[in-house]
Amino acid sequence: MISENFRSGYVAFIGRPNAGKSTLLNHLVGEKIAAVSNKPQTTRHKIQGIVTSGEGQIVFVDTPGVHKPGYLLNRRMMSAVHDAILSVDVLVLMRDASVSTGNGDRFVIDLVKESEKPTVLVLNKIDKVKDKKELLPLIEFYSKECDFVEIVPISALKGEAIDNLLKQITKHLPVAEAIFGEDEMTDQSMRTLVAEMVREKILQTTGDEIPYVTAVVTEKYDETDPTVTRIHCAIFVERSSQKGIIIGKGGIKLKKIGTEARVDIEHLLGKKVFLQLFVKVVEDWRNRPQDLDEIGVLE
Ligand SMILES: Nc1nc2c(ncn2[C@@H]2O[C@H](COP(=O)(O)OP(=O)(O)OP(=O)(O)O)[C@@H](O)[C@H]2O)c(=O)[nH]1
Ligand SMILES: [Mg+2]
Fold first, then answer.
1. Which H or E element spans position 59?
2. What pLDDT is stored for residue 286 in this prediction?
3. How many CB atoms lie within 10 A of CB 252?
């Protein structure tokens, strides 16, 4: 029997790169399931995070930041955004409230308008906005553009006003039974989560030139030893000069990436991990369907 007080459904995060969509997803599920970095285009595929409470179950769908696609990689990333918009009950338009409005914002607003789905406007990074009155012109601008069902200022990083956000979103979901089991957290496989942890550390450890040209694939995931999980990941780059940057002098950078990723993976698994990383040059992988399939950025 369906309880009249229980609501459930799918909710997609849509926004420009760096708005804080994945930070919010991780905060909501209470685990790091999506890579986060200050480099744009961190997220490359849809990631579901499931949040269940007494009032309802929300399946959040994190998506890549909206950008102009150049390579096949970027076209597939944007397809993931369009797919997510079509397949959910409610949209969350996430906006970094600490930056000024640009053409990219216009594009996101139009995407949301065209969808005709109920949309919650989330103004993120309010910890960076000293005087909260500064939010008023932004709220006014967005209200004129689109009829948002709610407008909620939050800080995903500090976890501010998130409970209120959950409440405001749940109101707009249909009365329905839970879609997933209570203890389910994500649709991502362990192999994918591991690859994302490694890629996050690469983004955090290297400068601006590396993020776009790097991908990570978990090539071996061996749990036969009950005391330690053995994992091999391949890091793709496009040129040998980039390989050198990731490895660093005497291998120091790759070692740092591996150590930091291992800590996160061990936390997620609750088990000891042996992580081996190797860098390989795969020319033009961003335009090759097979490579994109392998790294999990599907058509
Ligand atoms: N100060 C502050 N920083 C934040 C907040 N939320 C996210 N960030 C930072 O903003 C940067 C981008 O965060 P992400 O969660 O990766 O952003 P995203 O929207 O998923 O980005 P893409 O995956 O590239 O589309 C990171 O450096 C985060 O730490 C916030 O509420 N306050
Ligand atoms: Mg992201």
1. strand 56-62
2. 97
3. 10
81 in a domain, yes or no? yes
Best of 16, 29, 41, 157 for a ligand 1 pocket test (most atoms within 8 Å of beta carbon): 157
The domain that holds 270 is classified in CATH as 3.30.300.20
Q: What is the CA radius of gyration of the chain?
A: 20
Residues 28 and 160 in one domain: yes
Residues with CB under 6 A from ligand 1: 15, 17-23, 36-38, 40-43, 64-65, 124-125, 127-128, 155-157
Q: Whose CA is nearest to atom 7 of ligand 1?
A: 20
pLDDT of 209: 76
Q: Over range 25-29, report the average pLDDT.
A: 98
The pLDDT of 229-242, averaged and rounded, is 97
**Whether residue 204 sits in one domain with residue 59:** no
Residues 30 and 152 in one domain: yes
pLDDT above 90 for 1: no
Number of domains comprising the chain: 2
Q: pLDDT class for 2, splitting at 50, 70, 90? A: low
Establish how many alpha carbons lie within 13 A of residue 57's alpha carbon, considering only the half-sphere containing its beta carbon: 17
Q: What is the mean pLDDT of residues 216-244?
A: 97
Are residues 32 and 141 both part of a single domain? yes
For 18-44, give one letter per residue: b (16+ CB within 10 A) or e: bbbbbbbbbbbbebbbbbbbebbbbbb
Query: pLDDT class for 96, splitting at 50, 70, 90?
Result: very high
Out of 135, 170, 205, pick the residue that ends a domain.
170
The H-or-E segment that residue 65 falls in is: none
Do residues 40 and 90 both lie within one domain? yes
Domain that holds residue 34: 7-170
